[in-house]
Amino acid sequence: MPLPETIFCAQQIKIPPELPDILKQFTKAAIRTQPYDVLQWAAAYFSALSKGEPLPVKERLEIPLATEKTEAALTLGLLKVLHKQLSPKGVVNVAELKEKWKHLCLPEEQLEAILQLDNFGEEVEWMKVLALGCSVLEDPDGGAARVPFETFSFLYSYLAGIDGEIPEEETKAFLCGIKEQADQQSGMVLLRNFLTQP
Asked: Which segments cross the bilayer (predicted)?
């Protein structure tokens, strides 16, 4: 014999006081991040929240470059999310990097292509992956991203070394000119100026 359905009245239902705020923050994060796979991203969001880790959330909404795009791709906002999550570690296990990449619903083939640009082993220096990630970004939409000159200098020097065709003297001269510009911008380099150049 089946059990009768239990009918609850409003007085019997207890809503945890923090639940509405948690759901509100989650909803805002989902709207700002626009994950390709909401369920996969939600699992990563709540897992990070429960562990006190940085959340996989963009700082602001990015308008997609092509409205017909049906697949997720690395953007400046998503790269910033990864940087926030992985930069404190310095050196990251490739398996953890792949997991964070997957949490953002990014295609694994794109990460594999980035990792093939250098001879990485089981562990990678995060700043090098960041530099390679910056090199494959599409033209960003919105305001200019700012990075400290020291970070930009490291990234540029690394990429110039990987390229192998830029003489070291030319790299130093270029960075000297950028340092002057950065000094006028409180030590910050406007990243968009370099990402949008042909």
From this structure: none
The stretch 35-63 carries a mean pLDDT of 92
CB 138 within 8 Å of CB 73: yes
Give long-range contacts, CB 8 A cutoff, 24+ apart: 88-93: 89/126, 90/125, 90/126, 90/127, 91/123, 91/124, 91/125, 91/126, 92/123, 92/124, 92/125, 92/126, 92/129, 93/122, 93/123
Three-state DSSP class for residue 194: helix
Please say whether the beta carbons of 60 and 142 come within 8 A: yes
The percent of residues above 70 in pLDDT, for the chain, comes to 83
Secondary structure class of 152 (helix, strand, coil):
helix
Burial environment of residue 186 by CB neighbours within 10 A (0 to 12, 13 to 18, 19 or more): exposed
C-alpha distances (whole Å) from 181 to each of 25, 33, 159 are 38, 32, 20
Beta strands in the chain (DSSP E): 91-93, 123-125, 146-148, 188-190
Q: State how far the Cα of 89 lies from the Cα of 107, in Å rounded to an integer.
A: 23
**What pTM did the predictor assign?**
0.67
User: How large a percentage of the chain has pLDDT more than 90?
Assistant: 39
Task: Tell me what the mean pLDDT of segment 105-110 comes to.
Answer: 91
Tokens read off for 189: 């380099």
For residues 178 and 98, the model is more confident at 98
